[in-house]
Amino acid sequence: MDAQKVDMFMMMNSKYFESHQLTLIRERLLTLDDSKWTHVQMLQFKEPTTSLIISLFGGTLGIDRFYVGDTGLGIVKLLTCGGFYVWTIIDWFLIMGITREKNLEMLQNAIY
């Protein structure tokens, strides 16, 4: 893969991943064949800041978990009022990292 394309992708999408993962992502993208590159470019990653805002305002209803794709956990959180508000508060600190992990999973599924 063209290094310039990969660097542009990394520059535009680095906020969606953990900083310690960026080097490995770049190396993997450099070895990617052209047939998968179009699919990778079309991925719609979730915004970690948006997930935090959703968690602050709708965390007790599980909306943050639905947003990142954890449907099962979203339902449990909805039925328990955010784990009796304890889980809601914990998610305020964890949801951005969870969102970045889900973005990495999405990228890995597209690459492999």
How would you describe the overall organization of this protein?
This protein has 112 residues and is mostly helical. It contains 8 helices and no strands. The two termini are 15 Å apart.
Name a few traits of the molecule:
0% strand; mainly alpha; single chain; 112 residues
Tell me, what's the shape?
elongated
Q: Number of helix segments?
A: 8
> What order do the SSEs take from the amino end to the carboxyl end, as H and E?
HHHHHHHH
Gyration radius over CA: 16 Å
Compute the number of strand runs.
0
Summarize the biggest pleated sheet.
Answer: none
Mean pLDDT, as a whole number?
96
Hey, roughly how much beta strand do the residues contain?
under 5%
* Distance linking N and C termini: 15 Å
Low-pLDDT ranges: none
Proportion of residues in helical segments: over 70%
Class per helix and strand makeup? mainly alpha
Brief sketch in words of this structure:
This protein has 8 helices and no strands. With 112 residues, it is mainly α.
SSE diagram, text form:
Layout: H1 3-13, H2 22-30, H3 34-41, H4 48-58, H5 63-68, H6 71-79, H7 81-84, H8 86-111
Helix pairs in contact: 1-2, 4-8
